[in-house]
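Exam revision sheet. Question 4 asks you to relate a sequence to its structure. Input first:
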Amino acid sequence: MPSQKRENERKEKELKNEQKTKRIIWIVLIFVVFALVIMRICEVDFKELKNRFFDENGRLTFSMTTNEDAYPFTLSSSGGVKVEPIGDKLSILNDTTLSVINPSDAKVIYTFNHGYANPVIKYAGNYFCIIDQGATRLRLDRSNKSVFETKTDLPITCADVSKNGNIAYITREQNGKSYLTVINSTLKKLLTYEIDDGYSIYCAIDSSGKKIAYATANSKGADFITTVYTINVGDKEPRASFEFKNSSLMDLHYSTSSDLYYVSNSGVSVIKNQKRLHETFKEGNVNTVCYNYTKDNELVYVYSKYASANENKLVYINSSGRVKTEIDLKQKPKYISASSEICVLFSDKIVTYSLTKGDVKKSYKCDDSITSANKISTKIFISRQKLIDVID
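Answer key, structure tokens:
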């Protein structure tokens, strides 16, 4: 019958299409496996490859063409200069202004006079938060516009910002009582918690804006104790606490996996999932020289055996606290940063290293006037006094 014939032809056509689709899928899978095998044989660094071609939001990036005639970029003041990549832009804070520039041509995208006596800045994604430490002013901005500025009832001790614009901050009464507050980008309060243990010195918030840590300082007998507490938005009490004896806290910082780095003057630990402590370098066993974080919020850290040692080690520590890369340095570095590569500033040169293999990529001569060096794409942006310049 004609109808049966058409039905058979239709089924035969569908079968051919299905077989064709399967062949295409298998060809693609074989190609991917083949490519991975070749890359593994050639010892291609997958993490370095990801960092080189994708930004922190997972967007494909390309090599940047820089108009070097636009540099040096001159600042309004040389006081308190802090330079930091924010996305694919460059933010520059000094004691009077905050500016965000396009690094390719040094054009100002966003700038304002903050008027803060003691500005302290924190970055996450495309957000940054500035507080007037010891005063009552706090503001949230994106890389191209203001979100809000607000005043608090009590002086602000510290603050941190998440990738979604949530801010955790601590305020303090004259009698010593402190309060932890979390607000979102519309100024809605998500958490208010009274801290009743010691002097509050630091706080951090994870990338989702839901997990918080804060640190207090106290004395017990002859010992100086730093205690770190973890708490989540919605909690009534801390989830866990961790004591560090005779430790001077330098930083608390969440990785994107919500594990928390504890960096002190004499050690590094990771608090996993708000509850478990992993000591990468036990307190008192090392001397911290400098540190910074990768685009994935993982730690690059330089330490020595004692404060005056010339022999230093640079390590890349992943979010679980495991040392992934170890590099011997013959000099004491002044500054360290990390993007697709680790960029280390010494008094007489800048050296870039592979993030995960540790081999030297490039070396540039410089003088001791340079205070920071940050690599964006293929360019290194340096700061000295009132100037931001570029080297290739």
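Marking note for examiners. The CA atoms of residues 165 and 185 lie 5 Å apart.
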